[in-house]
Amino acid sequence: MNNAENQELPLAKTATAGYEYDQLEKRFHNRLITQDRISHSKTVFYPIRFIKALFEQHDKLAGMGLISSSGGRLKWLNRWLDNCIARITVITEKGNFTLADIDWLEIDPQAKRTTVLLPDGQKALLMTETHRGDIVPMSASTLDDITIDHTPNIAHVLDDNAKHLPALAKLTELMRQQAREENIKLDYDHISQLNKAVFRNVGLDELAPFIPKLARDLMLVASKSELKLMESQYNLRKK
């Protein structure tokens, strides 16, 4: 049998797709860890990918005995993200639940209908809030059509709580400085370039002291915003 025969074929777009909780958690984890908020207009940045890389580098050096720390920062970050995911609000025709309550989510792409398995074993139609605040059935062909909405959005949370986010504010200052010195645009497309510049020119010795404060800032940000599943077209139209 050749390699081509061994490869798994993609499912047809008409096939019903089902997801257990662990699969949903993994997909949503990947989304939350890439939701950076960086631009010239923002008072405080939310550079979550940089924070993940910082925690990874810190733990690596701690494991090698090159810095005096027990490590475990990346494990903490992953646990924090998993807790955020578990608390995501899931609106159904039978009431609101959290994602942790849902064992199974099923999407029928032909009917654009999504159902979830509730704790009592019943199935319920997944609903979504619109950009106007109405509750309607979730219309989705794939899991990509179902987004994670932040209310209020992250940008508003950062602006409203800037004085209570000292570590993120300091990191924002360092990133702005590197963007000026390296002539890097402050936008989503240049995040990777900016992250590399900060690591190259600032170094872990300067960044390490406020790692514990970054964890506290992340917890504050999470406490100020509700996450819920929302149809992508309505999420894009939210003000």
Describe the protein.
With 239 residues, the protein is α+β, with helices and mostly antiparallel strands. It has a domain at 16-89 and 148-236. The chain has 10 helices and 10 strands. The protein has helices at residues 3-6, 21-32, 48-63, 73-86, 154-160, 166-182, 191-201, 204-207, 211-223, 232-236; strands at 17-20, 89-92, 95-98, 104-108, 113-117, 123-125, 127-129, 135-137, 146-151, 226-231. The strands form 4 sheets. A 4-stranded antiparallel sheet has the order 1-4-5-6. A two-stranded antiparallel sheet has the order 2-3. Helix 2 packs across helix 4, helix 4 (73-86) runs parallel beside helix 9 (211-223) and helix 6 (166-182) packs across helix 7 (191-201). The N and C termini lie far apart (54 Å).
Distance between the termini: 54 Å
Order of helices and strands: HEHHHEEEEEEEEHHHHHEH
Strand content: 15-25%
Q: How many helices does DSSP assign? A: 10
Secondary structure tally: strands: 10
Largest sheet: number of strands, sense, barrel closure: 4 strands, antiparallel
- The unreliable regions are 1-12
The geometry reads as: elongated
Task: Tell me roughly what share of residues is in helical segments.
Answer: 40-55%
Structural class: alpha+beta
The Cα radius of gyration reads 20 Å
How do the strands of the widest beta sheet line up side by side?
1-4-5-6
pLDDT averaged residue by residue: 91
Topology (SSEs and partners):
Elements: H1 3-6, E1 17-20, H2 21-32, H3 48-63, H4 73-86, E2 89-92, E3 95-98, E4 104-108, E5 113-117, E6 123-125, E7 127-129, E8 135-137, E9 146-151, H5 154-160, H6 166-182, H7 191-201, H8 204-207, H9 211-223, E10 226-231, H10 232-236
Antiparallel strand pairs: 1-4, 2-3, 4-5, 5-6, 7-8, 9-10
Helix pairs in contact: 2-4, 4-9, 6-7
